[in-house]
Every structure is written in structure tokens, then in C-alpha cells.
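Field log, afternoon session.

UNIT: design team B
ACTIVITY: writing a sequence onto a fixed backbone
BACKBONE:
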């Protein structure tokens, strides 16, 4: 402890392969967090060291590298070594090449991970003793990111993704800051890998396009596809067929893609293009249904007692970003309250590992209030950037009111304000905004701004006080991690934010949580009588969300945005 404060740095990513990030926790409070992709401008920052995010977090916290008391890394080499022989025995007959690699190449890579951690720390001037560098189990880091930041004293915990060291699924309980494991399910059985494999077959990128499969599913009929030979489950566990799920190279349709030969033989060639066609929409629907049914069944069995006691569920891991599943969780009779970590993907484990160690070192973790944890820029810094760009700009007397007027007139506006969001969702600081009433607005954003599939839905950001009227649910949903059926009365009023199944993934906004963004929506309501706007992330297809003014102006110039509201400036093309 230095200067009376306990400072913990969380950084890294699984094997340093994808989604590297960093976070700073001071006296149990998350002060800063950012993903490396936002700085290097490469989505998921695969293979990139997280040096930019570390430097940002240290600067944002107003500390020096020498002020850091402890470091948390969300991957446990010891846990890997403990389980590797069990994994090898499970797979030696079905996947001998993987068993061999785990015992040779992967073991060597894991041994190098610890040293790489210390090399990065030394390069950044972080002189923490080796015994103060903690290697936290991957799923414990996920679990901590949900439980310790939820504000719940006691809760049931789920963490589900592709894999950690070997675990793919964790059920646990949380009480008084302590996490107790109830059940782990290990590789090769993985719901995340099952979902990602089907994502690849349906023409999307695994570890990136799973939300597209989720968005496609409502267009299909799950009853038309039988996946019982791909994955089987009961209340105690599940088994995936290695011929169909995350196949080894010899079982792939093409060596460089995670598409099984067996799937192609059964259902036909992998999907191509951006359209909605059969049988692919039905395969998406069946995948989503099996995924949901398996998780609900397992939750009831392993977390039933904990949920009967508290009614509180917390959820993290990449699978927690599946809002269609989360809608079923909200409606489950055992679940009275739910907290889904907004950075449920692997970048969030850096924050989870740090808060886990904070609690271990006796510093109680403070609940997460928002995700505005990234960089911000002054108007002076913004104007300096604008002067170097081929744009026209002027200072607005009331940026929120003027932006609302542009939206009411049918314009599509880039909105760049305050601190950047941590996690995959734009929540009103790095957003593209549109009018949810005017037909064709979503198509226009998809085609001219986001350059993505036209059937994909957009989200509404709405005034919190209208949640019950519009969603039939009086609930705080500030992070776009939940979805709801839109009430019949509102579906026809706001067609541009209602999916084909009548649902929406909302962000409820309060004046306290984001005053400037709330003011935009409130002014829009005053003009139109509609208490919500379209909100999607400020980026183009295949790019990370923008971070800096330079990023924002570059994105504006390379898209069909009508205006950019950045700081107190309105930007237009020359």
C-alpha cells in the first residue's frame, strides 16, 4: 500500500492471443479500463501486447508505475498444469493430435506466459515483486467481474465461454466477497465452442460473429433441424461430438476455417453472403435453442438452491453476451434479480482478476456504476484534431439540443462525448444515433454507415422512466446486456429498433448515469413524443469502436454519417 491507497493493475488476455486489455483498481474501485484494440485500431488486437491500455490506465489514474502494489493476470499456468493430463486422457483417442500438443507445445507456451508477463511489467517500469503478481484462473476472473462488481452480497454465479485454461463452464456461489465453486465442466465439452463452430459454418467469424448468429435465429424454425448428434445435454452436463464441434484440422471442410466436414456433408456448403436463406436460418434457430435449453437445465440443477435462497444471478463469460438467452434468464421463476457483466468477453477478465485480488488483499470492491472508463478529450484537444482534417466545424451553443433536432429531422449523427466505454457496447459516448420512427433509418445506417447485413437490428437507448411502458418491464438495463419483448402499443411506433421477433436490446438512460446523453434523448422526446433513439457503436464493419477524435473524424469521412457531434462541435463535410 502506497500513499494510503491500494493500487492493483489487471492486464493481459488469454495466452496473450486476443482481446488484451488493462484495468486499474484503487481501494476497490475501478478507476480506468480499456481494450488494446481501441488504441492499435485492430479488432480484438490478436497477438498484440497490451502496452497502450496499461499506459492509459496508469495515466488516467494519476499514478506512476511504481505506485502499483499488485498485478493480476487472468490466466493460471498452475491450473493449466493441474488439468492438462486429465484433458489428454479424455482426448487421446478422439483427438490425439490435440492431446499431444497440450502436453508439448501448449505446455511450453504456458511456461513462457509467466515470463512474458514480467517482461511487459519491466518494460513499463512496474517494479512489483514477483510474489505480488497473481495469476488468476480464467473463469474465476470472469466470475469475479460479475459477482464482485454487481453490488450483491450473495448471489449465484455463472461463467460460460469457449474455454479457460481447460474449464468451459463454471457454476459457483458468492457470499461476503468469497467465490465458491459448485461445478466445472471442462474441455473438450464447451457450449461456447459449439456456438462458435456453428457461427463459422453460418459464414461469420468465430469469437466475433456469434451475435450475428443470435440475430439470425429468430428468422428460422428450430424444429426443422435436429442437432442431437452434435451436442447432447441433461441436467448434469453435456457432451459435444468432436466430429462436429471445434474439429481438428483433418476433420475440417477447409484447413484454415473451423467448419466441420460432417456439418457440410449433412447440411450442405457453408453459408456465404449477407442474405437470409434456408436451411441456414433454421440451423441458427436450432443452435440458439439448444444453447439456451442446455444452460437453463444446468443452471436449474447446479444453482437451484442458491437461487431459491437469494434469487440473484450474476453472469459473465462470452456466452453472457447472448441477450436472447438472458431474456429467458430474466423470465425464469428462480431469477428475481440479474447482473450481466457488460464486459463479459475476455477483455473483462483483466478487470475481474484485479477486483478478485483486491478482495483477497482485504480491500472491499465497490459496485460497478457505469462503463465510462476509457479516454476522454477536452474541446481544445478536439479542435486541434479538427483543424487538421478536411471538414467544416462550428461550436454549438447546446450540443445535446442541436443533436436532438438533427435526429428529429431524420439525420444520422455520430456522437462522441466524454470517456470511452469499456466493453463491446456503445452506451452513449461513442455512438451513432438515429431516429427510431422514420422507416428505413436502420437500413440506411446498415448500408451507408455501418456497411453490415441489413437484417441485423439496432438497439434503443431510452429514458429510464419509460422502460415499463415500452418494455413491459420496470427494470434498470443500463448496459445493453438484456433483451425484452416490446409492448404491442410501441412496436409500430418504433419499428427501427424492434427485431423480427418483437424484441429489443435496450439501454435505459438516467440523468445521473449520463447527463449529456440523457439530455439528447429528453430533447428528442420533447420534439417528437418518442422517449428513445437508435444507438449503435461508432465504428464501421470490421473496425473497433473509435477512441480518439482522429478516429472519429476518420470514421465520419469514410461513412455516410450526416453529422458528427464531437465535444461541443458540430462537424460537416467541406
Amino acid at each position: 500500500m502506497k500513499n494510503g491507497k491500494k493500487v492493483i493493475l489487471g492486464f493481459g488476455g488469454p495466452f496473450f492471443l486476443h482481446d488484451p486489455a488493462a484495468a486499474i483498481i484503487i481501494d476497490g474501485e475501478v478507476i480506468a479500463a480499456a481494450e488494446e484494440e481501441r488504441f492499435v485500431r485492430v479488432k480484438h488486437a490478436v497477438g498484440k501486447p497490451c502496452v497502450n491500455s496499461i499506459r492509459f490506465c496508469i495515466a488516467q489514474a494519476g499514478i506512476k508505475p511504481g505506485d502499483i502494489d499488485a498485478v493480476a493476470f487472468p490466466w493460471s499456468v498452475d491450473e493449466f498444469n493441474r488439468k492438462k493430463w486429465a484433458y489428454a486422457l479424455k482426448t487421446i483417442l478422439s483427438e490425439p493430435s490435440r492431446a499431444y500438443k497440450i502436453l508439448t507445445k501448449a505446455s511450453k507456451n504456458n511456461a513462457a506466459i509467466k515470463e512474458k508477463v514480467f517482461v511487459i511489467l519491466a518494460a513499463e517500469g512496474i517494479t512489483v515483486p514477483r510474489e505480488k503478481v497473481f495469476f488468476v484462473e480464467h473463469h474465476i476472473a470472469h466470475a469475479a467481474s460479475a459477482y464482485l462488481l454487481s453490488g450483491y452480497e450473495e448471489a449465484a454465479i455463472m461463467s460460460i465461454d469457449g474455454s479457460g485454461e481447460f474449464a468451459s463452464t463454471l457454476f459457483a456461489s458468492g457470499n461476503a466477497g468469497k467465490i465458491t465453486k459448485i461445478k466445472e465442466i471442462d474441455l473438450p465439452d464447451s457450449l461456447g465452442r459449439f456456438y462458435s463452430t456453428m457461427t463459422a459454418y453460418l459464414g461469420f467469424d468465430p469469437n466475433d460473429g456469434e451475435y450475428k448468429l443470435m440475430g439470425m435465429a429468430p428468422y428460422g424454425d428450430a424444429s426443422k433441424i435436429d442437432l442431437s448428434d452434435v451436442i447432447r445435454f441433461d441436467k448434469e452436463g453435456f457432451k459435444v461430438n468432436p466430429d462436429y464441434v471445434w474439429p481438428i484440422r483433418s476433420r475440417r471442410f477447409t484447413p484454415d476455417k473451423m467448419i466441420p466436414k460432417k456439418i457440410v456433408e449433412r447440411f450442405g456448403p457453408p453459408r456465404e453472403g449477407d442474405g437470409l436463406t434456408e436451411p441456414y436460418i433454421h440451423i441458427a434457430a436450432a443452435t440458439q435453442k439448444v444453447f439456451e435449453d442446455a444452460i437453463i437445465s444446468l443452471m436449474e440443477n447446479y444453482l437451484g438452491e442458491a437461487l431459491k435462497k437469494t434469487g440473484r444471478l450474476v453472469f459473465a463469460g462470452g456466452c453472457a453476451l447472448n441477450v436472447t438467452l438472458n431474456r429467458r434468464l430474466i423470465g425464469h421463476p428462480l431469477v428475481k434479480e440479474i447482473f450481466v457483466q457488460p464486459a463479459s468477453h475476455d477483455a473483462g477478465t483483466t478487470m475481474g482478476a484485479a477486483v478478485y485480488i483486491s478482495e483477497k488483499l482485504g480491500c472491499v470492491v465497490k459496485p460497478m456504476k457505469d462503463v465510462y472508463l476509457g479516454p476522454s478529450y477536452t474541446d481544445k484537444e478536439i479542435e486541434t484534431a479538427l483543424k487538421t482534417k478536411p471538414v467544416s466545424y462550428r461550436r454549438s451553443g447546446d450540443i445535446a439540443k442541436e443533436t436532438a433536432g438533427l435526429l428529429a429531422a431524420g439525420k444520422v449523427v455520430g456522437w462522441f462525448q466524454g470517456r470511452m466505454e469499456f466493453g463491446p457496447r456503445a452506451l452513449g459516448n461513442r455512438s451513432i444515433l438515429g431516429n427510431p420512427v422514420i422507416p428505413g433509418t436502420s437500413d440506411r445506417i446498415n448500408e451507408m454507415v455501418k456497411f453490415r447485413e441489413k437484417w441485423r437490428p439496432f438497439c434503443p437507448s431510452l429514458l429510464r422512466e419509460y422502460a415499463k411502458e415500452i418494455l413491459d418491464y420496470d427494470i434498470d438495463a443500463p448496459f445493453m446486456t438484456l433483451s425484452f419483448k416490446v409492448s404491442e402499443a410501441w412496436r409500430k411506433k418504433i419499428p427501427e429498433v424492434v427485431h423480427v421477433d418483437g424484441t429489443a436490446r435496450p439501454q435505459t438512460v438516467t440523468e445521473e448515469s449520463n447527463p449529456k446523453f440523457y439530455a439528447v434523448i429528453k430533447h428528442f422526446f420533447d420534439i417528437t413524443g418518442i422517449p428513445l433513439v437508435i444507438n449503435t457503436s461508432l465504428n464501421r464493419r470490421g473496425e473497433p469502436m473509435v477512441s480518439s477524435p482522429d478516429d472519429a473524424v476518420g470514421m465520419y469521412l469514410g461513412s455516410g454519417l450526416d453529422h458528427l457531434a464531437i465535444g461541443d462541435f458540430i462537424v460537416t463535410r467541406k
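LOG NOTE: The longest helix spans residues 280-310.
NEXT ACTIVITY: expression trials, pending approval
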